[in-house]
Amino acid sequence: MPSPDVVKRVRDSGRTELADRLSLIGTDVKITIAYQDVPRGLGHAVACARQAVGNESFAVLLPDELMGDASLLSQMWKMHDAGGKHVVGLKQVPMSEVSAYGCVNTTGAPDKDGVVTVTGVVEKPAINEAPSDLILIGRYVLGADMFDMLDTLAPAKGGEILLTDALLMAATAGNLLGVVSDIDRHDTGTPMGWLQAVIEIALKRKDVGAELSTWLEGRFK
Fold first, then answer.
1. 36 in a domain, yes or no?
2. Alpha-carbon gap, residue 33 to 101, rounded angstroms
3. What was the pLDDT predicted at 157?
4. How many domains are contained in the chain?
5. Low-confidence residues of the chain, pLDDT below 50?
6. Domain range enclosing 208
7. Tell me, what's the pLDDT at 116?
8. Co-location of 62 and 133 in the same domain
9. Are residues 128 and 149 in the same domain?
């Protein structure tokens, strides 16, 4: 939630609408921060949230992967609520990109809703060893038992606790579903990905999109 002093300064400057929007941030949610004191991988980071989450299902959203809207996560929650299985977001990408992500095996083609049963998970495979062209895209809906699986894991190469290793345990037990989505997605984890995200999102804004588009067209004439 923004500092009251910040909201007051914005309001005093005459930007009333912006001040009203700022004052609403965080008023309808409870925020608990769990610190990962050492960089030991995504699985370890998730495990650090165990006390805050308790014995409830939860979602993991990787902040460097931006999605166009909340439709994918909403579908994943409904699937988890209906069957109790862990659910991961997936996207089909060129094989040249799979080595940068977790990659999955599935039982076959997605159904009409994009749903597949995940049977295997591999962390950043070599292109010639990748089981498919379906990657994990930073959206997970997980049951509380995921914490127990994370607790059993030995560190992988580099000393990290990998979430993909716990997901593999769930897949092996027949307890992992995926949703293959064509949702707008930006991976801001690289300089080029970050730049592309900034430009594409800015182009969709009503306040600056048209002006930015005109400027870009002028730059490349």
1. no
2. 26
3. 87
4. 2
5. none
6. 188-221
7. 98
8. yes
9. yes
